[in-house]
Amino acid sequence: MSSKDSGRVALVTGASRGIGYGIARALVARGDRVCLTGRNEEPLKEAVAELGADRATYVAGKAHDEEHQARAVEHVISEYGRVDHLVNNAGTNPVFGPIADADLGVARKVFETNVISALGFAQKTWAAWQRDNGGTIVNVASVAGISASPFVGPYGISKAAMINLTLQLAHEMAPGVRVNAIAPAVVKTKFAAALYEGREEEAQNGYPLGRLGVPQDIGGAVAFLTSEDSGWITGQTLVIDGGLFLNAGVA
Ligand SMILES: NC(=O)c1ccc[n+]([C@@H]2O[C@H](COP(=O)([O-])OP(=O)(O)OC[C@H]3O[C@@H](n4cnc5c(N)ncnc54)[C@H](OP(=O)(O)O)[C@@H]3O)[C@@H](O)[C@H]2O)c1
Fold it and tell me: Where in the sequence is the domain holding 217, given as residue range(s)?
């Protein structure tokens, strides 16, 4: 896919499709090598084949599983000798409904998959490489972590926590490691399909830029946050929303 070689290596969780794959694609295009994770092996194999087997590798497993986290970090180090960038992208939202009725077991699971897993990956990447060599982390949050999004309460709470996790890591891991988050609005992926499929015209009406997001919109932003061009930016959350938040005014 790319003949460039940056000499840098990224671990991107949840990257066999959707936003994670879009991020991996952007990083490979600028010359990085990438390690993808996801639960299912077949789509990971296909993603690696598309990116180029000389540029990408994968480890299958569940993001919240500490043993999987350790295996993924060990694999990327043994394969490429370093792990400069960690992108905590794997996330879930298994339930829609009023927060008053939210199943607490499900809410715990959402928190575990979306937030605790990101902390686990950050700790392991730090210990294996970033503490001594520096690097960057990008956490994939959501506009749902910044503003109320009815009927996805546990998800929004977890994404708000992801933003605070970003602040904590950015402070404690400076100056060697820069840590930022991104907060996308609706991006056209399998995960978000229920929010726009069959009614895309209507769904995109609220977006001043006139369309929903696509994974390429996110890949470019993460490429920036993991590059020297953002060398004095840490602890920030970049909203990527096609202007959606511009609607929050009074008129
Ligand atoms: N799409 C949006 O509108 C939107 C907006 C804001 C934020 N986000 C966030 O962006 C991230 C990616 O979402 P997406 O829309 O790209 O979703 P997607 O298209 O469904 O892709 C999710 C990816 O993560 C993997 N995955 C799912 N659960 C996992 C788990 N427990 N452990 C490891 N890997 C897992 C999936 O592969 P397997 O199924 O094989 O595991 C797949 O590769 C999520 O954190 C989501 O909250 C999405």
Answer: 9-241
